[in-house]
Amino acid sequence: MMALQHQQHKLQPQNQSPAWLSVPAMRYQDGYVWFVLLASLDIILTWYILLKGGMEVNPVAKVVIDRWDIAGAIAFKFSLVLFVVVACEIVGRHQDKLGKRLILCAMFISAFPVLWSLTLLFMRGFLIYLQPQP
Questions:
Q1: Where are the domains of the chain?
Q2: Which end of the chain has fewer CB atoms surrounding its CB within 10 Å, N or C?
Q3: Whole-model pTM?
Q4: Residue 14 gets which letter from DSSP?
Q5: Average pLDDT score over residue span 112-127
Q6: Residue 24: which pLDDT band, with cuts at 50, 70 and 90?
């Protein structure tokens, strides 16, 4: 009888993982890395411009920054990032090409504020440190 129980135990899978650990891999991981990088650069450059006396031109972001400062801006930006990533995953599981286009579109849209901020900083000379003349 003991041998029979041992035999049945071998037939059952040994390492079953819970269902929540067996989620499929993310579909557009490389795109998400670039998207998060651009979102991070946007926050960093926006904050730098604000510290130098600039102003936020996005009215929604301005309200968030005025009310909750940098912590609110970070939470706001990355809640939008999370929304886009989840949307890409949902759309991409049904229509792969549309999901790819969605993350590419999100990356290009996120690149515009970064490029604009860098342009403003270069135009105003904020990125260039000049030694004071004696």
A1: 27-123
A2: C
A3: 0.78
A4: S
A5: 91
A6: confident
